[in-house]
From TrEMBL:
PROSITE patterns, per database record: RADICAL_SAM
Name by which UniProt lists this protein: TIGR03960 family B12-binding radical SAM protein
Database matches in Pfam families: Radical_SAM, Radical_SAM_N2
Segments forming domain Radical SAM core: 271-513
PANTHER family with a match to the protein in the record: RADICAL SAM DOMAIN PROTEIN (PTHR42731:SF1), SLL1084 PROTEIN (PTHR42731)
InterPro entries, A to Z: CHP03960_rSAM, Elp3/MiaA/NifB-like_rSAM, Radical_SAM_N2, rSAM, rSAM_horseshoe, rSAM_sf
Lineage: Bacteria, Bacillati, Actinomycetota, Actinomycetes, Micrococcales
Domain of life: Bacteria
Residues forming coiled coils: none
């Protein structure tokens, strides 16, 4: 029977796999609804729309994911819908499921993923694509969208990687670009109506209805033609799909206070990568860092109000029992009321075990007052800053307007105020970068240590330098640039490591962590690939590729071998997709997906990068005409609101006041 629990059949497998607790479900605040929660129509037709939501990685990585958690709750609040979660199963569980003839299942109701109407996957990184194929295959859903029938789920991709879904176009039925909260409700309405009408026109009719909204991309309704040299000639709606738009628009939720999710955050049973309750304090970023896809595609900035954040924190702590609150955004210290917010929350939870944390902080947005408020009730851990580039020159190229003196003054204040550990994050392989730009990272780290020793009078000062390889991303000014090759990246990082270690005065005080160039090149292939890259992904998966985001499972040799074989009859190869620079007139695989950013503006910003010209943040300066606000019918929404955070506490009357306010 559809929707039946498979747990009795799964239970014997649990003792044969590592970390069986990740498959059992039952987390605090999880939901299992009746399969027919929406009831039946007069002719017996089903009136429930059912979603299986997947973060295509291990449970410990996927369960704290805010995007999936929010959609899970938004959907389950509807009386005619249900949503359950599924995660990538480890290879040991995959083998057990195949041997037992059991399918990919949800952790909530242990139901087969194939029984659901919709299978939604949230991709924050492209390296999860092979895990999607494992899930489809285990679920008994045909790998290729063209082979599915009316009884198979509609497979929908979302998340940041969905802004270029072309490499997985043959495996997904649709993609939703942008914010998901309202989008999934619109899709739920359309699927619900189609089911209530008796599923007229089958799968194709449903996909047409979704595509005609203008906010759901259905790759099957678009034809791609190529030039003899391998470049795309054009992408156009196919002639037999009337009403399908030429461009698909991203979704933007404007009033974040109207969407205070998650209200009941999930508390994992097993250890996860983030043991905290998180609140997104604003969405979007207009700092204009040219490498940052997240900042570009989530424009404009939309802040939650001080009181809205306060209510979410109060409710979330009461619902979870967590002792740390993460104040999340792309640049949390840029919230227009961050000082009032952190002081208000620290006051509110004074005397409790509740600590506050910000993700990595911009050097020029940090101050000691802010840091002290964050650590008032919690432990004083290390501070993380992201200068991104080692030299002033390269920081101008990437529009990261932070001077070396800014950084030194900031760390001096931190070390002087009692911090002992600072982590600095940089990238290697940025456009126009030279060896000298990267070697400047070593000099910067030495200055940081020397400064720390001077202001603190101590020798136990530590600085960790963490380096990631730069991967050009769609919808950024760097979408045209050539990616640095693997050998060049590794050679540059080796020189840097030697430069750090060479100076005995500082070497032992500077930690050095880096990723080699191999995973970055594969990510580059997938991030800027077109539909032809799908055959590479499938070949890698069939060759055993799984969990490519994990270094112990990733195989560069496998990706290169499979790519060479899969692309052998085409005028393109891995280098064509990665280390080749694009021209202004080239049609890019994602041009028909509208992030709101004007392509001419992105090109001008790319030229500014080459000229080492910086651009201000449009939050505080006149508009630079990136195109988002007029094109998307949106605008920047920031404070101050004039409201204050009442000093409620979970230990006192505040909880009751909050409950009364909610009702």
């Amino acid at each position: 029977m559809p929707g039946e629990s498979l747990f009795n059949a799964l239970e014997p497998l649990l003792e044969r796999v590592n970390k069986p607790i990740q498959y059992v479900g039952g987390e605090l605040n999880s939901t299992v609804k009746d399969w027919n929660v929406g009831g039946h129509g007069p002719a017996g037709e089903e009136l429930t729309t059912r979603w299986a939501l997947m973060y295509p990685d291990a449970y410990e990585v996927g369960v704290p994911n805010q995007g999936v958690m929010i959609l899970y709750e938004v959907l389950n609040e509807r009386e005619d819908a249900l949503a359950e979660r599924t995660y990538a199963v480890w290879p040991d569980m995959e083998a057990q499921l195949r041997e037992a003839g059991l399918p990919q299942f949800t952790v909530d109701g242990h139901r087969s993923v194939r029984d659901f109407d919709l299978f939604g996957l949230s991709f924050s990184t492209e390296l999860g694509y092979t895990n999607m194929l494992t899930a489809l295959d285990l679920a008994g859903i045909p790998l290729h969208a063209a082979d599915r029938d009316v009884d198979d789920p509609i497979v929908i991709a979302g998340g940041h990687a969905a802004f270029n879904p072309e490499p997985i176009a043959s495996f997904i039925d649709a993609a939703i670009v942008g914010d998901g909260e309202q989008a999934v409700l619109t899709v739920t309405d359309i699927v619900g109506e189609w089911k209530a009408e008796g599923r007229p026109g089958g799968r194709r009719e449903l996909l047409l209805r979704l595509a005609r909204t203008g906010g759901v991309y259905v790759p099957a309704f678009y034809d791609v033609s190529y030039l003899p040299d391998g470049r795309i000639q054009r992408v156009a709606p196919s002639g037999d799909a009337p009403g399908v738009p030429w461009r698909v628009a991203k979704h933007t939720v404007m009033d974040l206070d109207a969407w205070p999710y998650p209200k009941q955050p999930l508390v994992p049973l097993a250890e996860s990568v983030h043991e905290r309750m998180s609140v997104e304090i604003f969405r979007g970023c207009t700092r204009g860092c040219r490498f940052c896809q997240a900042g570009m595609i989530t424009r404009p900035v939309r802040e939650r109000s001080l009181t809205g954040i306060g209510e979410m924190v109060e409710r979330g702590l009461a619902a979870t029992g967590f002792e740390e609150v993460g104040l999340l955004s792309l640049s949390s210290a840029d919230h227009s009321e961050i000082a009032d917010l952190t002081k208000g929350l620290a006051d509110r939870y004074e005397g409790t075990q509740t600590g506050l944390s910000l993700p990595s902080t911009r050097v020029d947005a940090f101050n000691i007052d802010l840091a002290n408020e964050l650590t008032r009730n919690g432990r004083r851990s290390g501070l993380t800053f992201a200068p991104e580039g080692g030299s002033e020159r390269i920081r101008k190229v990437i529009n990261k307007m932070v001077s070396e003196e800014d950084l030194i003054n900031t760390v001096a204040a931190a070390y002087g105020a009692g911090w002992r550990q600072v982590k600095l994050y940089f990238m290697c392989g940025l456009p126009t970068e030279t060896d000298e730009d990267v070697l400047q990272i070593a000099e910067l780290a030495k200055r940081v240590i020397e400064t720390g020793r001077q202001v603190s009078g101590r020798r136990d000062i530590r600085c960790t330098v963490s380096i990631g390889g730069f991967v050009p991303k769609p919808h950024t000014p760097f979408q045209w640039c050539a990616q640095l090759g693997v050998e060049e990246t590794d050679a540059r990082l080796l020189k840097l490591r030697e430069a750090i270690r060479a100076d005995k005065r500082y070497g032992s005080s500077i930690g050095f962590r880096y990723h080699d160039g191999q995973p970055g090149l594969v990510e580059g292939l997938l991030s800027r690939g077109d539909r032809r890259v799908g055959r590479v992904i499938e070949a890698v998966w069939r060759d055993g590729g799984r969990f490519d985001g994990w270094s112990e499972h990733f195989s560069y040799e496998r990706w290169m071998r499979c790519a060479a074989e899969a692309l052998a009859d085409l005028p393109v190869d891995v280098a064509w997709y990665t280390t080749r620079e694009r021209g202004e007139s080239e049609v890019l695989p994602w041009d028909h997906l509208d992030s709101g950013l004007d392509k001419d503006w992105l090109w001008e910003d790319w030229q500014d990068a080459l000229d080492e010209t910086e651009v201000d943040d449009c939050r505080w300066t006149p508009c630079f005409d990136c195109g988002v606000c007029p094109q998307m019918g949106t605008e920047i929404e920031i404070g101050p609101t004039g409201k204050t955070l009442l000093p409620l506490t979970v230990l006192g009357s505040g909880r009751q006041e909050l409950l009364e306010h909610q009702h």
